Amino acid sequence: EKVKEREKDAKALQEKIRNFEELVRNLEVEGKTINDLEMKIREREKEKRLESKGKRLQELLMKKK
After folding, report:
1. Alpha-carbon distance 8 to 14, whole Å?
2. What is the mean pLDDT of the chain?
3. In this predicted structure, what is the pLDDT of residue 2?
4. Which of 5, 11, 36, 45 is 20 to 30 A (C-alpha) from 61?
5. In this structure, what is the dihedral angle of CA atoms 30, 36, 41, 47, given to the nearest 10 degrees?
């Protein structure tokens, strides 16, 4: 009787471990995705800053001519 209970407990624990491992894997994937998105956002912000600097330089050059 106790052996059966322990086997049931062991199976339940194994299931919890599997669920936890799956959760960790999902979080790792989401974390990578979030990091990728943050990098893309930063790159786009840099591009916008460079574009506005380029426009200002063009305006200055036009004024000098």
Report:
1. 10
2. 92
3. 87
4. 45
5. -170
The string of DSSP letters for 16-56 reads: HHHHHHHHHHHHHHHHHHHHHHHHHHHHHHHHHHHHHHHHH
Q: Dig out the tokens for 33 from the structure.
A: 């995705």
- Residue 14 and residue 18: Cα distance in Å, rounded? 6
- CA pair distance 60, 65, nearest whole angstrom: 9
Structure tokens at 1: 């009787």
Asked whether the whole model's pTM tops 0.85, one would answer no
Token pair for residue 34? Answer: 């979030």
Average pLDDT over residues 37-53: 94
